[in-house]
Structure formats: structure tokens, C-alpha cells
Write a structure and sequence with these properties.
10 helices, three-stranded parallel sheet, 2 domains, Rossmann fold, single chain, six-stranded parallel sheet, binds nicotinamide-adenine-dinucleotide, alpha/beta
Length: 295
């Protein structure tokens, strides 16, 4: 193996610690802690774990965590009423609705109902538009975390060839926007893309956000490429035990790449750290304070 392992877990821990150092000054200036409200509809097991981890990290950073757990059959109007309540609550700086929502709910309408100033997930169309035109706004946490790891590793991304595999609103599209903003030359690949291997072979940066275990192989990569693996796939491991793997075949890719994120321990921890960052920034903006600059 030749690739440097990009330790997202350590990077995220350092970022979370930096975030925590800014909370006392915010508290002194405003008389309150920044607050994040998480809404989890229903009992989905994976979502429960995510929400628990988000709440724990929020409290560890010295922020206030509010959890709302409407039942799986909550009517759309009741959920929208809860969002309106959180929009109006001065103690709430960030609102996160854990996705996916049960099928009877209109995800788009729910996201649209969140006050863009409190939309710490950056999924509201106002924030999507701001990112597209290069204005300040809330940027989705996972691509923001990927970008931080890339800049830490590479410094300037200007002129580099980047291939983003996946075009979801949550990861692929905002990732492409962020890379464009850094002046990378960006190709977005998706399920209909032809000759994916050929595209990947020309890339200095590969961001894989597909949801297909070990899809990107080492012999697709340009030697020395920086590989960010967003995928989280549950597969059967040794002895029938479940284990997590990414979208990149780590064994073969780490022999060719210059640097690579592991799964787990790469992008995943960055997502939560960036959620705290967005909440802290939203809190400062709402209070008319300048957001900290070291985030
Ligand atoms: P999604 O299902 O919304 O999008 C997947 C994308 O992959 C689509 O745009 C599709 O066109 C593309 N795709 C599918 N098959 C392809 C193929 N054969 N070749 C090229 N592209 C193909 O998924 P998502 O929400 O963007 O998530 C992607 C992965 O990232 C999942 O494994 C998810 O669990 C993971 N994820 C991780 C984090 C994290 O914090 N680490 C956050 C969000 C998502």
C-alpha cells in the first residue's frame, strides 16, 4: 500500500474541539448556547443511530440539542406545524429533519418549510441557489466535509481534474459546485455515464458517492490521485457478520492512490462536525455576530 490514509476521524475531532472553543464567547455575548433541533419521524433504526450521534456531538460541543420524534404516521400538516414552531423559536439556530421521511410525507415541501437561515443541512432551494451562484449560505454537511479534507491534503484545487461519481442533491451536486468554486475542472458522473473508468483515470480528485460497495477499482485510478469515498455500504463480512465498506475498493485503490479516505473513519465523522459548524455559524449570523474564521 502506498496511499496516505486521510484520517477523517482525527480531522473531525480537531474541528469539533475548535468549534467547542467558540461556544463560551457566543454564550457570553448572547446569554445562551447555540441550539440545534433534530426532527426524527418514526423509528427507522439507522436514523435513530444517526440522530443519537448528532445529539451527543452537539451536547459535547457545549451546544443545546432539541430532539423531536413525531410518530411514523404523523400527518404532513402536523410536521409542517412543528417546523413553523422551530422556525419561530429563538433558542433554535439550526433545524435538521432526518431523511428519508416515510412515504406519505412530501420531503420537498418539508425541506422548503425550513427557514433558510436555520437550514443547517443546506437542502432548502434558497441555499442550493446561493451555492450555485457563489453566494454565502448553508452548504450541505457531507460535501463540505469532503472539501475540507481535500483542501487539507492538496491546498489549492485550482485546475485539478475532479470526477464526482453520483449526482444526488445531498452529496454529488453540491460537491460538484464546491469543487467548481475552488476552480477545479469538474466532471459529474452518474448511473447513465459511459466509460466511467476512462473518466476516473484522468482525475486528480475522485469523490465517490454512489452507494455501491467497492465499485471503484484501483486500476481505474490515476497514480497519485486523491480519493474521497463517501459511500457507506453494509455488506456481509467474515463469519457472516455485517461490516461497512465504501464505494471504492480500498485494497486495490490504496495501492495506486496518493491519498484515500477509509470507510469507516473518513467522510462519516466529517459530516457531523460540519453540522456543528453550520449550527455555530447560523447562530452567529442570527445574532448579528461575525462567525469564527477558523472553521
Ligand atoms: P443516491 O442514491 O441519492 O445517489 C446515488 C448516485 O449514484 C445517483 O446520482 C446515481 O446516478 C449514481 N449512480 C448509481 N449507480 C451508478 C453507477 N453504476 N455508476 C455511476 N453512478 C451511479 O445516494 P446519496 O444520498 O448521494 O449517497 C451516496 C452514498 O453515500 C451512499 O452509500 C450513502 O450511504 C453515502 N452517504 C454517506 C454520507 C456520510 O456522511 N459519509 C452522507 C450521505 C450519503
Amino acid at each position: 500500500m502506498s496511499a496516505q490514509i486521510i484520517d477523517g476521524k482525527a480531522f473531525a475531532a480537531a474541528l469539533r474541539a475548535r468549534i467547542a472553543t467558540h461556544v463560551p464567547a457566543f454564550r457570553a455575548a448572547t446569554g445562551r448556547a447555540p441550539g440545534l433541533a433534530v426532527v426524527l419521524v418514526g423509528e427507522d433504526a439507522a436514523s435513530q443511530v444517526y440522530v443519537r450521534n448528532k445529539g451527543k456531538a452537539t451536547r459535547e460541543a457545549g451546544m443545546e440539542s432539541f430532539e423531536h420524534r413525531p410518530p411514523a404516521d404523523v400527518p404532513q400538516d402536523d410536521l409542517l406545524a412543528l417546523i413553523a414552531e422551530l422556525n419561530a423559536d429563538p433558542a433554535v439556530d439550526g433545524i435538521l429533519v432526518q431523511l428519508p421521511l416515510p412515504a406519505h410525507l412530501d420531503e420537498e415541501a418539508v425541506i422548503a418549510a425550513i427557514d433558510p437561515a436555520k437550514d443547517v443541512d443546506g437542502f432548502n432551494a434558497v441555499n442550493v441557489g446561493r451555492l450555485a451562484v457563489g453566494m454565502e449560505g448553508m452548504v450541505p454537511c457531507t460535501p463540505l466535509g469532503c472539501l475540507a479534507l481535500l483542501k487539507d491534503r492538496l491546498g489549492s484545487l485550482s485546475g485539478l481534474n475532479a470526477v464526482v461519481i453520483g449526482r444526488s442533491n445531498i452529496v454529488g451536486k453540491p460537491m460538484a459546485q464546491l469543487l467548481l468554486k475552488e476552480s477545479a475542472t469538474v466532471t459529474v458522473a452518474h448511473s447513465r455515464t459511459r466509460d466511467l473508468e476512462e473518466l476516473v483515470r484522468r482525475a486528480d480528485i475522485v469523490v465517490a458517492a454512489v452507494g455501491r460497495a467497492d465499485m471503484v477499482k484501483g486500476d481505474w485510478l490515476k497514480p497519485g490521485a486523491t480519493v474521497i469515498d463517501v459511500g457507506i455500504n453494509r455488506v456481509e463480512g467474515e463469519g457472516g457478520k455485517a461490516r461497512l465498506t465504501g464505494d471504492v475498493d480500498f485494497a486495490s485503490a490504496s495501492a495506486v492512490a496518493g491519498a484515500i479516505t477509509p470507510v469507516p473513519g473518513g467522510v462519516g465523522p466529517m459530516t457531523i462536525a460540519m453540522l456543528l459548524r453550520n449550527t455555530l455559524v447560523a447562530a452567529h449570523v442570527r445574532e448579528g455576530l461575525a462567525p469564527p474564521e477558523d472553521l
